[in-house]
Amino acid sequence: QYKFRDLTIEELKNVNKTYPNFTFSMSTYTFKDGSQKDLLNFSGTIPVKYGNSYNIPIQLWILDSHPFAPPICFLKPTVNMGISVGKHVDAHGRIYLPYLQNWSHPKSTVIGLIKEMIAKFEEELPLYSLSSSDAARRSELLSYIAKITEGKTDMKSKNKIDGGENEGCFNKITVVGAGDLGIACVLTVAAKSAADKVVLLDPSEGAAKGGAMDLEIFALPNVEISRDFSASADSKVVVLTANYLGNAQTYLDVIQNNVDLFRGIIPAISHYSQNAVLLVASHPVEVMTYVSWKLSAFPKSRVIGVGANLDTERFQYILANLLKAELLAKDAWIIGEQGEDKVPSWTSCNSVANQTEAKADRNSREKVANRAMEVLKGRGQRSWSVGLSVADLTDSILKDKRKVHSVSTLAKGYFNINSEVFLSLPCILGTSGVIEMVKLEEDPLVQEKLQSSAGSIHDLQQQLKL
Q1: In this protein, which residues make up the domain named UEV (predicted)?
Q2: What pTM value is reported for the model?
């Protein structure tokens, strides 16, 4: 079934000469979309020096288009090993390397791939040793998973493994990222009593510093701080606030670093909370919501960005309270991109008041809206204000309020947008995320601006390596 069988066999012979400990077999590989294929794979250990010498277990799956397509690479930790999620390894043990991204036959070879793998692992060791109790718990969990596949267990045994409590009935939120925004989200969600439990999760080394440490010192009720992804298990909503904080040369580099960061986060989060709604607050929100959707493989309804929710709430408040235009405020929305390219729009409405106003003076609404937009420009988006917006959104989701919010959602198919991009649009939110999108008035200028935003976002996404 291999298209280039002779080339594949020749290369694997070379691998066997260099790494005679590898074992070869044919097994069934399951892809992300659920499809399966019998593929050649080999497993073994590679020598890595990180202070001491370590033998790192790996498994490489050889695609049937090899050597013109790169292998799919995984760590294969034993029961007493834990995976260190990082730049090159995600929570499932999948390995990501520049060598794989730039794979090109005949320059690229499996031997060359393994050499780069060793070099990268010597910079950042991908595995660590579990304590005996952790190893025992992991062994028990693996045994439980095996029983599930055989149909020999039920949820009661799961609850026992999880610690004796059935947390499935609780409204649990996980906030990923312990920066200022993450802490603001924890505090505002806790203050709004939107959740029964809030987990602040940050797998980075900085998790014990700054505000996260203060939260731990002044322990808030129902707030847990953790660096372990398993602490997020069974969350109803996962709020993503993590952002790359290093020095990057270009804006594209910053976004690509955020993508790399999410590659180590999203698979783990989606593994532990398979029915969660992902609420993205990382920057830029439209792109990172798209990235979260792709990496999680969740339905589009359960991956949303904070988008223009804060701007919309402010816009409506300014119209109603500062400009005394309450009728306008009820149907007013900020949509599109977050930032300078946001657009004011209006809900389609058949009320007598709005029809009369439109006939009397079609321009009056735009004049008032322009004044409101000028006031809105002076309002920055500080961490605590975004945190309040996040608490507002999580409250609507967890309590199934069916409230309308302007959030980043997949815009393909709307306003003649044909690309997979996320833009802020008015959506009804409930426990399953986006329940329905609200119809807006048809306005050629608004449509033109949204299509322009969609085009620029799509072009940016095309330059990213997912």
Answers
A1: 1-131
A2: 0.63
